[in-house]
């Protein structure tokens, strides 16, 4: 095989490693491209292209993450990973680990780890690399990598929910939830929300935002009820999709452009969290992006026009 053929064969794996380390589609793609440039320019032929390329993309991703951490500290409002529709890497032997590790909840847990812990966890726990390979990739001793793996597992286990619903049950409940939202069925929505449900939105200051998040069934239900009629009234379509390996949806404006995405966390038969990405910079890899401010203004006007008491509406996204 030529170098280009070897690289193209391994590209899905390299992207999947980089995305889990970085939580960003754009940054992962850049890391993969930089890996190719290094591979192409290397005067030596590695004994194992997989080991060489995995090490290269890991090191590049660690360096990118260190600088990204500084930017995220200055981010406007809550930060969420960029939504991913399809993970390009498939391994039937590790399908459960791969699916769980790409969820919004797991990626947010990974944010708690140091860059080195995160890289070690991703390589070892998600992709099943042996410690010699992990050590080579992060340029640390095997003993150090074992310690990093122990700390990373502990942090991840502390943050995981104690019980996780069956995947089919999660999908079915999410489908009923989205149907109830589209129909404006407040009673049905209320019956599916956990008492401590949270809604978190990532706008990055570049789209409508409802503050730093909303918690509690009553508040979330009030917002969902306000959003449902307002968005339907201006032609917004809710398109159920698998987002980051979990139930979710793409919201499209009347012209088909992407408005925002939802991912829905389900646990113990209830919706525990709704995470929405509205920042247009995090959506353009999914397709043309709508003007969320214009849609929001139209939705507010629609709600005012149909309101009997003239109460100012909640934000619509």
TrEMBL record:
Q: Which family does it belong to?
A: Belongs to the sigma-70 factor family. ECF subfamily.
* Gene Ontology terms, MF aspect: DNA binding; sigma factor activity
A biological-process GO annotation: DNA-templated transcription initiation
Q: Which NCBIfam families match?
A: PRK09636.1, sigma70-ECF, SigX4
Question: What name does UniProt use for this protein?
Answer: RNA polymerase sigma-70 factor
Q: Give UniProt keywords alphabetically.
A: Sigma factor, Transcription, Transcription regulation
Relate the assembly described in the record. Answer: Interacts transiently with the RNA polymerase catalytic core formed by RpoA, RpoB, RpoC and RpoZ (2 alpha, 1 beta, 1 beta' and 1 omega subunit) to form the RNA polymerase holoenzyme that can initiate transcription.
Q: Which residues form the RNA polymerase sigma factor 70 region 4 type domain?
A: 105-156
Record domain RNA polymerase sigma-70 region: where? 7-69
InterPro entries, alphabetically?
ECF_Sigma-70_Domain (IPR052704), NTF2-like_dom_sf (IPR032710), RNA_pol_sigma-70_dom (IPR014284), RNA_pol_sigma-70_ECF (IPR014303), RNA_pol_sigma70_r2 (IPR007627), RNA_pol_sigma70_r4_t2 (IPR013249), RNA_pol_sigma_r2 (IPR013325), RNA_pol_sigma_r3/r4-like (IPR013324)
Q: What is the lineage of its organism?
A: Bacteria, Bacillati, Actinomycetota, Actinomycetes, Streptosporangiales
């Amino acid at each position: 095989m030529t170098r280009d053929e070897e690289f193209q064969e391994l590209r899905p794996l390299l992207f999947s490693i980089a995305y889990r380390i970085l939580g960003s589609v754009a940054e992962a793609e850049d890391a993969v491209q930089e890996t190719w440039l290094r591979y192409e320019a290397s005067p030596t032929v590695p004994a194992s292209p997989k080991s060489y390329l995995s090490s290269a993309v890991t090191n590049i991703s660690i360096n990118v993450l260190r600088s990204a951490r500084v930017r995220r500290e200055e981010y406007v409002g809550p930060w969420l990973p960029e939504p991913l529709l399809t993970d390009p890497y498939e391994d039937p032997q590790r399908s459960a680990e791969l699916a769980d590790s790409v969820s919004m909840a797991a990626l947010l847990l990974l944010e708690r780890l140091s860059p080195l812990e995160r890289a070690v966890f991703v390589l070892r726990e998600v992709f099943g690399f042996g410690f010699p390979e992990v050590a080579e990739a992060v340029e640390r001793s095997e003993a150090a990598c074992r310690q990093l793996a122990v700390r990373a597992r502990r942090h991840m286990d502390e943050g995981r929910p104690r019980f996780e619903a069956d995947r089919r049950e999660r999908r079915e409940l999410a489908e009923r939830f989205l149907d109830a939202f589209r129909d404006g069925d407040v009673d049905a929505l209320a019956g599916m929300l956990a008492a401590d449900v949270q809604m978190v939105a990532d706008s990055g200051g570049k789209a409508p935002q409802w503050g730093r998040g909303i918690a509690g069934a009553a508040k979330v239900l009030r917002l969902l009820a306000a959003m449902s009629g307002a968005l339907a009234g201006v032609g917004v379509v809710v398109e159920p999709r698998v987002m980051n390996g979990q139930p979710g949806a793409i919201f499209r404006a009347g012209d088909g452009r992407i408005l925002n995405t939802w991912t829905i966390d389900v646990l113990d038969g209830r919706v525990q969290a709704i995470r929405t990405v509205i920042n247009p910079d995090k959506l353009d890899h999914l397709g043309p992006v709508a003007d969320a401010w214009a849609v929001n203004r139209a939705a507010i006007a629609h709600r005012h026009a149909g309101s009997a008491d003239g109460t100012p509406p909640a934000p619509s996204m």
